[in-house]
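[job 4471] stage=fold_predict status=RUNNING
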Amino acid sequence: MINEIYEYANEHMHKSIEALKRDFSTLRTGKVTTTIIDNIKVDYYGTPTALNQIGSVIATDATTISITPWEKPMLSVIEKAIRVANIGVNPNNDGQIIKLFFPPMTVEQRQEIVKQARVMSEKAKVAVRNIRKESNDKIKKLEKDKAVSEDEIKKALEHIQKITDDNIVKIDETLKSKETDILKV
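[job 4471] inference complete, writing structure tokens
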């Protein structure tokens, strides 16, 4: 029973870290990546569809992303979706391809993105702590039901805290790595 609670805590805390990494992938670093536009949805014949599912999306160099739709009539729809998404650049439509030219990041922009990354990592820490609380509540319920001894309860609570601490350290390491990546010129 207690092992199931450990597995639950481990699994859900790991999912929080994976969600943080996905969030981090949407942040811009010195080099442009196509993940910046992953969250942009295009109205594809009435269905919100990811950009990379209606055309070819590639980073042609460190500051440019090219989007080549598989259907030419989608050019204006893609252009509109990018404008609405407000990702900090205006799309350039040449009738065949949409290009996004990202200017080099200023120090202020880099620091602002680091702040966003810190907020994201703090949310992940809160999620991990909430999972700890849920797990501790389950363990305390076992104690209340007299299903396990007091010693086992104490050990279980300590183990949950160790799992939590390990995951908080992983979040901090992930943040530090992303900060280094963002601040690197």
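[job 4471] summary: The CA atoms of residues 44 and 157 lie 50 Å apart.
[job 4471] exit 0
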